[in-house]
Amino acid sequence: MAIQVRVILVPLDFSKHADSIVEWAAHLAEEHQSSVVLLHAYHLPVEFQQVEGTYLPADFWNSIKDEAKDQLALYGDRLRRRGLQVEELTREGYPATVIEEEAERLHADLIVIGSRGRSGLKHLLLGSIAERVVQKSPCPVLTVKNAHL
Prior knowledge:
five-stranded parallel β-sheet
């Protein structure tokens, strides 16, 4: 049985490990002649929304989205120079939910996502987007734990 990987979804949070995540996705895309979809999901944590008297400038979300688009374009351009077909998406919403929804909508065959490897109390308090994606994803998920290739 041959495994076909036509669409690779690559959620990015622009952390220091993003280069490694993109490199893993690019390698797999080259191997399988896949297209790559770079995704950035942004949201305002509930804790911040509940702070009394919180003021957000009128263009707050537009500037967040524009900055994300600029960052994704840098990665997208790098992949295009390697001959890969790339799409860039930004979406507002809780990242794990957005990733799951986009994987379904795109009929993704694989998600390549970073994992910070938190444990103990930090993991309990902060949770893990990657862990939630692995649990609910409609397709296989490759987690890239650190910068080592």
